[in-house]
Design goal:
mainly alpha, single chain
Length: about 170
């Protein structure tokens, strides 16, 4: 585990973590840094190590020892984390390797079991309707302007007897 010490400034935080990472992986890094996506973080001189400043170190040896003692006392007071033996996780009882492949090879005349669809979780921000019949996304399913509230099929009589019968 690598723990940062804090007290970083914007000018040296990227340098500190780069140096600490190089120490952790036991790799020497040159002071001249190659150009990369994070190169601008190493400005203004774009070197790994910063030049020493004329600021004096005001940390006394006594102060550092007291800080270390207090740190170790605080760590001793922390509750320990119990270790757990690693075990393999058993696969699910219903394993579908590729849902798209399963749907492609399934019989188009037979409805797929709902367990297949229950495995997939759609984000509520999706703007398309689901593949289950009758399930519409509330955000995208809107009645067109001017369309009647009742569908035309619902108004048609179901049988010929219903067509001639007076309404009840």
């Amino acid at each position: 585990m690598l723990v940062g010490g804090g007290g970083y400034t914007i000018r040296n935080v990227s340098r500190c973590w780069t140096y600490e990472t190089s120490v952790a992986v036991d790799t020497e890094i040159a002071n001249e840094l190659p150009y990369n996506d994070y190169f601008e973080y190493f400005g203004p001189d774009f070197k790994l190590h910063i030049e020493k400043s004329n600021m004096t170190n005001q940390n006394t040896q006594d102060y550092l020892e007291k800080t270390m003692t207090r740190l170790f006392e605080n760590l001793r007071e922390l509750p320990y984390a119990p270790s757990v033996q690693m075990q393999p996780i058993p696969p699910d009882s219903i394993y579908v390797p590729d849902k798209a492949l399963l749907e492609d090879h399934s019989n188009p005349d037979v409805r797929n079991p709902s367990a297949i669809y229950d495995r997939a979780v759609e984000h509520e921000g999706e703007y398309y309707d689901g593949s289950k019949e009758g399930v519409k996304d509330a955000q995208s399913y809107k009645r067109r302007a001017g369309s009647p509230l009742v569908a035309a099929e619902d108004k048609k009589p179901k049988t010929e007897d219903d067509a001639g019968a007076p309404p009840i």
